[in-house]
Design brief:
By secondary structure, the chain is an alpha+beta fold. It is built from eleven helices and eight strands. Bound molecules: zinc ion.
Amino acid sequence: MSFSTQVKNELCRAAMHRPCCIRAEAYGALLHATIFSHREIRLNTENAEIARRLQLLLRRAFSVDCAPRQAGSKIQLVLEHAEQLGHIFDALGYDLKNHVTYHINRNVLEEDCCIAAFLRGVFLMAGTVAGPDKKSHLELKTARHSLAGEETSLLLDLHLSPKMTRRGSTYVLYFKDGASIEDFLTSIGAPRAAMELMEAKVEKTLRNTINRQVNCETANMVKAADASARQVAAIQRVLRTHGEAFFPERLRETVRLRLAYPTDSLAELAARFDPPISKPGLSHRLKKITELSAAEEE
Ligand SMILES: [Zn+2]
């Protein structure tokens, strides 16, 4: 199941309490119907849950009964009776004698709750959102420029600023920033999906931080290995000319162990002593050895 479908299924379970919001949600869906005219309304979806939701919205908002029917891969809700269409257009404040204008009747969306419900209807019919594993992206499509503009102003009322672009004959409102997408989904009734996106973002940030730490540790290890290689080279040069006797007795075990285990970290090498010595103790001895070797080479 795509993330969009998951979000829409969550939206389909949103409560239907207030009549004003039920009408607003139906209105949002109708303005994005395949056909929305004074002769016919035709809503297409591929999602059975959305079809059921639309049927319920039409019944509760306009007292219109319309059974979804399968048409190929799509499920359709079709209304053609003048009486049913009349109920709907009356409730939305349209004059049935005139052609439907694709302007949003703001009288139907007086409250903020209604705006969110309207946008839920829009998203169910015309929305997509990228999942938590993808780059943040949410969009609402419409074939009408006027609708895209008016829906932008509705979103602005909810303090969300979408961008608009055109794809062929389609107008697209979209968000690319995660925070806006999470706010949008939360306000239209998909808080779980919003939470999922948020958690994925936190996880990604955490993973990046860990990666940076690992890289940093790797750099430290490389530095340590370089230091060890320099020590070993210096010791070997001195040994070639003077033999082990060059080093004081108390440093000879360190010389032997460093040569035997050139890739050991300080902690590992310190543990090999019998009895083991401390890291600062070993560090001090190695420093002394390096100084003696360097002095000899000058
Ligand atoms: Zn309302």
